[in-house]
Amino acid sequence: MSTAVLPGATIGILGSGQLGRMLAQAARRMGYRVHTLSPGRDTPTGQLADREIVADYDDLDAIAAFARTVDVVTFEFENVAFAAADCAARHAPVRPDGGVLHITQNRLREKRALAAAGLPTAPFEAVAEGAELPGAIERIGTPAILKTAGFGYDGKGQTRIEADTDPATAWAAIGGGPAVLEGVVDFAAELSVVAARGLDGTMVDYGLIENRHASHILDLSIADMPLQPAQAQAARDIAHTVLESLEVVGVLCIELFLTRDGALIVNELAPRPHNSGHLTIEGCASSQFDQQLRAVCGLPLGDTARVAPVAMANLLGERWAAGEPDWQAALADPRVNLHLYGKAEPQPGRKMGHITALGDDRDDAARRALAARAAL
Ligand code: AMP
User: Fold this and answer.
1) Distance between CA atoms of 209 and 218, rounded to whole angstroms?
2) How far, in Å, is the centroid of ligand 1 from the Cα of 184?
3) What is the pLDDT of residue 1?
4) Separation of CA 87 and ligand 1 centre (Å)
5) Residue ranges of domains in the chain
6) What mean pLDDT, rounded, does the chain reach?
7) Superfamily per CATH, domain 187-374
């Protein structure tokens, strides 16, 4: 018997941000219906969904009712409580399963899982309470970064610790524990591998995406980072090892540091399509959202081949500081595409949209994406 969820069926998305919106776009194109559940109204995903259910993620009655009306549940927001995924799983398949969420929504569990799979991470130590911090700093050394173990992303809940930092101040800065203390990696570059694993265990990936951050938030991604073949293979092997060891069904992104001496270190995992993979929409035969849809529906995965050199620049809320950006100026370059997420309130640091540019080569693509954004 086929376990595939076929076109015409309904995809349930827990979470309602831009990742769900772009997944909904892929799903709609293939003839699926989409339901989304989150506490928000008129959300980026809800605007494109057949049904937008407004409920808290800990409202298990609402989660159960939601799961009963869909054919498969996935999530676009990894901080959905494990209990919600577990509850949904009693009524519909949840992919990837709640166990993947449980590991990746806690930095300590994630780092331990990576270490258990033999993968390289920055040196780290668990810090359960403030009193443990001075000892951890002594063992890890400075500079170090203190991060809350749960519910952190884009540099939120993090503080850097130097030799003269008062541990109590650092502890207060992240709002208390439990936390993880990590050694600072002296990296030459940051990169990600966006990969997918199907229900039958097949795996594909989009190669190496170079990422540049500003204020801990992704700013620019450029596909096809030119690394030594052995390094590139090592990065892709890391991604495949993670997908297999966590038995992921769906898309997962591995964020990596490339150290100055050429080593690769895993920073963190995102068990879903990722901001750095948005460039696959125009840049690849099948996008990361097509891939997520195909994987969670138990369909064969698509082709990750690059159709052209491509880069992506994020549009954060600060671009709206002087009023509505000049979209026409950004679109003057025909190789630029604009994505806006339908968010009403532009706040600083809020991801409002992105610009993707195709180019003659990767430098040209990056230049076009940045020029289009500067023209706003
Ligand atoms: P995260 O929220 O853990 O992805 O961190 C956001 C950004 O902070 C990363 O993309 C890096 O630029 C920086 N960062 C985080 N952890 C480290 C580390 N151990 N060493 C150096 N930079 C880091």
Assistant:
1) 12
2) 8
3) 45
4) 33
5) 10-94, 123-183, 187-374
6) 95
7) ATP-grasp fold, B domain (3.30.470.20)
Query: Does residue 217 have its Cβ closer than 6 Å to ligand 1?
Result: no
pLDDT > 90 in the chain, percent: 93
pLDDT of 369 > 50? The answer is yes
Residue 257 CA to ligand 1 centre (angstroms): 9
Q: 10-94 architecture in CATH? A: 3-Layer(aba) Sandwich (3.40)
Sheet strand arrangement including 158-161: 124-127, 179-183, 144-148, 158-161
Query: Which three-class secondary structure state does DSSP give residue 354?
Result: strand
Q: Which fold has domain 123-183?
A: Dna Ligase; domain 1 (3.30.1490)
- Residue of the CA atom closest to atom 5 of ligand 1: 155
User: Could you tell me if 327 and 304 are in contact, meaning their C-beta atoms sit under 8 angstroms apart?
Assistant: no
Full-model pTM: 0.96
pLDDT of 177 reads: 79
The position carrying tokens 């810090």 is: 127
Answer whether 216 contacts ligand 1 (Cβ < 6 A): yes
